[in-house]
Write a structure and sequence with these properties.
The model has no long low-confidence stretch (mean pLDDT 89). It is elongated and about 70 Å long. By secondary structure, it is mainly alpha-helical. It is built from seven helices and two strands. The relative contact order is 0.12. A two-stranded antiparallel ribbon has the order 1-2.
């Protein structure tokens, strides 16, 4: 799974808005500077977030952006879906729409499980939790597991049995 730069920037921008005082609007330039986001890219992201009902904006000299709902009511999945669409697509299709000939028939089950696991984290984690660090228990458990911090599985120092058991 790959999270796009656009979704990452959108989530970071939303975190900046989440810590703003209630009723205070934040200028796009301030968000861009705070999170090192290219300003033109951020402007396009903010338009998408506004159209998706995630932020409201006010024009003019005192203008800026603010969350459309409280930070506790916006999940990471909400933001990613507005920016990039469904959380998990395989060849542009939802996992339940996929079918593979044997012997890969059950790969669909894996894709559905991957989507469920991703949704379990993204739909249960709110902007408020991210900015306060009060993350849901599953996120904390995975984030503190040293195995989660390596992209190689199993980690190189792990010994594997020489043969896999027969099915």
């Amino acid at each position: 799974m790959q999270i796009t730069a656009k979704s990452d920037y959108a989530l970071r921008a939303m975190c900046v808005l989440a810590v703003a005082e209630e009723g205070v609007v934040v200028k796009a330039a301030d968000i861009a500077a705070a999170q090192d986001i290219p300003p033109n890219f951020l402007d396009a992201i903010l338009v998408q977030l506004r159209r998706g009902g995630m932020v409201v904006s006010r024009r003019g000299p005192g203008g800026g952006h603010q969350l459309a709902r409280p930070a506790w009511a916006i999940t990471l999945a909400d933001v990613v879906r507005v920016i990039d669409g469904p959380l998990t697509l395989i060849h542009g299709e939802r996992p339940e729409a996929m079918s593979h000939p044997a012997p890969a028939t059950h790969l669909q089950d894996v894709w559905v499980a991957v989507r469920a696991a991703l949704r379990g984290i993204m739909e249960e984690t709110t902007l408020r939790q991210v900015v306060t660090g009060d993350l849901p228990a599953p996120v904390t458990a995975l984030g503190t597991d040293h195995r989660s911090w390596t992209s190689v599985w199993p980690p190189p120092e792990t010994d594997l049995p020489e043969q896999q058991p027969e099915a």
